[in-house]
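Human:
Focus on the backbone:
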Amino acid sequence: MLVRHIFPVSSLFSLGGDESRVDSRTIYVGHRPSTTEAFIPPKFCDNRIVSSKYTVWNFLPKNLFEQFRRIANFYFLIIFLVQVIVDTPTSPVTSGLPLFFVITVTAIKQGYEDWLRHKADNEVNKYPVTVLENGRRMGTESEKIKVGDVVEVNEDETFPCDLILLQSTRDDDTCFVTTASLDGESNHKTHYTVPDTEKDLDSLSATIECEQPQPDLYKFVGRMHIYKTDREPEIRSLGPENLLLKGATLKNTQRICGVAVYTGMETKMALNYQGKSQKRSAVEKSINAFLLVYLCILVSKALVCTTLKYVWQSKPGQDEPWYNQKTQREKETNLYLKMFTDFLSFMVLFNFIIPVSMYVTVEMQKFLGSFFITWDRDFYDPEIQEGALVNTSDLNEELGQVEYVFTDKTGTLTQNNMEFIECCIDGFQYKYRDAVSELDGFSATDGPVSKLQEKAGKEREELFLRALCLCHTVQVKDMAGVDGMEGCPPPHEQTGFIASSPDEVALVKGAMRYGFTFLGMESKKMKIMNRSNAIETYDLLHVLNFDPVRRRMSVIVRSKSGDALLFCKGADSSIFPRVRQEEVEKIRVHVERNATEGYRTLCVAYKKLSPEEYARADADLQAARLALQDREEKLIAVYNQVEAGMTLIGATAVEDRLQEEAAETMEALQGAGIKVWVLTGDKMETAKSTCYACRLFQRGTELLELTVRTLEDGVRKREERLHDLLLEYHKKAVQDVPPTKGWSKPSQDFGFIIDGASLSMVFNSSESSSSHYKNLFLQICQNCTTVLCCRMAPLQKAQIVKMVKCSKGSPITLSIGDGANDVSMILEAHVGIGIKGKEGRQAVRNSDYAIPKLKHLKKLLLGHGHLYYVRIAHLVQYFFYKNLCFILPQFLYQFFCGYSQQPLYDAAYLTMYNICFTSMPILAYSLLEQHICVEVLLDNATLYRSIAKNAMLRWVPFLYWTLLGVFHGLLFFFGVRFLFGNPALQANGQVFGNWSYGTIVFTVLVFTVTFKLALDTRHWTWINHFVIWGSLCFYVIFSFFWGGIIWPFLKQQRLYYVFAHMLSSASAWLVIVLLILLSLLPDILLVVLRKSSTAFLPRGRPLSSCCRRRPALTASPGVTEVSPSPCFLLHCPPPNTDHDYHSCSSLVCFATPLACFLPDCFCPPYGNVHYHLHPLNSTSR
């Protein structure tokens, strides 16, 4: 009978051991305590996964609370309450309805997203599983699994919770899993059953002690006590190799059984899906700043009107005219209270200057705009059959503002597709004849092993190749296909190897080229076939796992002769200090040369352990692996002890080819004014070679090196040498460099190289000097075109990003990487990009955007980023502009109505102006606008500079849009007032009233702001036409119906037939048309002047033939196969001329800073040449 109980932690102390276990949990499987004392089993969480934020009961209060935490929503709520409580000139509906619309749309969006999360949770929680209970297989649902249950999982099924592997149908007591849903690795990983467990789990009596839940996917500490009759309990250590994680999938194994140790929200998968910190874009900060300005304008207007009202009423007869006597209650009201309520009334009257609907429009623009990245066909990679992924839509516009790119090397700049190139044994170089290499121009001679100068001894060759065949964690997927090998087929035919790292597969395949074939492992016995086709068997005793701190891994095996051998491979910086120094020099030459050629190098060493050494190492490893506290530290101490005093055999060189179009992408980013920093854990020579291959370092680049090698000085201390070098480099790269204007290129390019050890000295010096060193280091780096940081730990990568992000000017940073070691810098940067590479999907999971290849970064930034920024910048400025146009006539009207708070517009117009009449055109514009076609943006990276540093949302363009709004507002109000100079405007002599006045102003307003947007539109689609002309038609139809029908729910019908009577007057028609033309005259003149001035310029060569019918940025319906984007020509001086065809002092660009922010006037200077972009033909609008 199988019994499962969970006992309190206090009972652990009776089990022996020298550690405190307060941070552990105990799970009893099939074992009842021998004592009869009462106990209360602790309750662990059930196996339900909850990723949703809301329930049916708390959705409304929780969502409302979150929404009203936003300043704008809270402000409009206060305004609405003031309208309800205080007698204000406008109905509460005017502010309540827009607020309700905003809150409702946001709540629906968030509720829908949460419903999708609930749906996904239910699919997981209701998943059918099999549990062994009382010796029987019972079917149940995943959410009903409890800690301690024994769960059965079949092949190709996912694990429903975190399990300790107890039993497998494989003969070698292993199972294979893929963790694609956790870290994206499709490679098969091997997991092992707990040794000496009962085959019949019904009779298993065991206790598991393990650490409390923690999110690290690759760490697990525990031990298992196996109880047998009349015997002492057997203790077995548990590690990550015994833990099967929820979400992983069972592969190549018929069935396994495991005991649940973590369930539900305590599983490692659930702990890893905790929310990331919220990132805010620079546009949001600009919006908040502009909002404060308009809030000040609002308060100023209210104060001015309140003050002037009481000044005007202080005159005799004005406060209480004969036709409007005050009531007794009004006479007794406190003067200051009355002034305060009047102030609030004016605030309510003018509150529409704050564009509350802008927040909804911006949110919708970001959400819908993110689909354009997902739908972009250029981002689709047929190899992995995936496209781009958007995890965060809030940062779309930030892609157009990037100033620094921090990139990983392996898997990002390179393919992480390893190919064995050559090896070095005892200082002699070996290269296989089929290896693809141009190293030193050498062409290999016949034979599997090529001799360059001399050969090492046969014994050393075979020892080296045995080390490559044994020192790894590779598994053979199909052993039958490998056992039958007669020779060494080409590498592309070897498809049976399973490994978590492509490096290991490359080395095993490299050994096959030289005659040693790894055949696989059975029951802890590793089999290899040597050159004589004889099979050698080795007992695998211990694996000393690789970790990024040690930068090496080892195995301890026993040969048939009984010798215990340790084989170790790792980075040269990790191996060289642990071998005899006289062996190092002859290998170092080859390692450094291979690194200079851009190859990844590993050194190989071995050690023969005496029986006493092995016995001591075995005991220490067993003790460290059984520890619950500080297990990692204890294991590393033992590893360091065992791996001392080794003998160096040789080194390997593996090529990691550059990513497709990596050099072109880096060149384009630098052309766009973006500084690229490479942060890698690789050695300096390899990384430097990659930088040259990617054109980050040019032939004329002067390299400034700050590494351990340059800091070595027999006379002075390292810190003194560090100080001197920093001062020397600062003088060379900062002080002695003449200042440059704008984006002009400096006379000398500098590249900076620093390693992890030197960086630690910069960051971790004494407090007095650390800040000084950081400032010097940062200034040097900012004046260099490229910075290379090698031998970097993941934390150091994040420190570098944070240092630049927090520097003066707060530059926008972007980090891009493909591995787990890049997650820290991806999370630290303003924008994080994950590459869907071969090192797993942790980077993708934690990124804001994910792309299949590095080459896609070019279009993501220079194309999508540029357009997103221009669109949302125009959206923000346009919203403030149209609201200022809307409310300024209302303010001016108070000067002519005795400051009586009389509204100029009807309540329906106040309510629907931002919701219906003017919202859809700007939303369509912000989604579809292409002021410059994408091909030109990609061909001319310098155009990216024109929008750098938040250029379109600075105070100068904001002032331009504000003055434009003031000009239009004044024109609307006084133009209509001029019309009303003749009161008899109708044929029957009937005069217009104040509602007619406001309706004419409002009509001119709606048509003008809509036509203004139409003039700014460069890329027309049927959607733009539909929403622009549809909005205007809707306004006219609504006005006819609103004023042409007596609505029973209205107490007073202010606009009854007002709109119809207005349009019956020829004078009203004339004024409306004239005022619209006068308002838009500057924009029309600008277009005409621009076209006429560029017509006389010599025609340049088109940069891109994009004037063809092609899909737009996306494959979305309704946007593809539309009217072509406006195509632009770049006017460049023809050869042998010094003409400057366009300068910013010309009519086209005016002579003001405003020019470069106008919609299609981008004039980025490059050297002494100024460019001007203009449409090919007049119909492109």
Q: What stands out?
A: Residues 856-893 form the longest helix (38 residues). Residues 397 and 869 are 4 Å apart (CA to CA). The longest strand covers residues 414-425.
